[in-house]
Amino acid sequence: LFAYAILRSIPNKLGGVIALLMSIIIIISFSFSMKNKMSSFYFNIMFKIMFWFLINCFFLLTYLGAMPIEYPFDLMSKIVTIFYFMIFIMIPLM
């Protein structure tokens, strides 16, 4: 449902489909990019904060994907979608 909330939050049909595909591809690509078993990156406090922020965004998007498309839920899904993609932009910068 998290990908469905991303799809619904973008009013353009093609843009919504591209965002939906990118959200799934990003999650899959992270499983292949993490090669080290132990790294100091995993123990970094900023990484832990970003990780839990990502988990919260995931659950919020899942909840918002199940809600009807009305005023508060529509706006919330747009905001959380922006946060979701900003996390993946900020992780390599850390």
TrEMBL record:
Residues 1-94 form the Cytochrome b/b6 C-terminal region profile domain. It comes from the Eukaryota. GO terms for biological process: electron transport chain. The chain crosses the membrane at residues 14-33, 45-69, 75-93. GO terms for molecular function: electron transfer activity; metal ion binding; oxidoreductase activity. Keywords: Electron transport, Heme, Iron, Membrane, Metal-binding, Mitochondrion, Mitochondrion inner membrane, Respiratory chain, Transmembrane, Transmembrane helix, Transport. It is found in: Mitochondrion inner membrane. GO terms for cellular component: mitochondrial inner membrane. It is a multi-pass membrane protein. Its main location: mitochondrion. InterPro entries: Cyt_b/b6_C, Cyt_b/b6_C_sf, Cytb/b6-like_sf. The main subunits of complex b-c1 are: cytochrome b, cytochrome c1 and the Rieske protein. This is Cytochrome b. It comes from Rhipicephalus microplus.
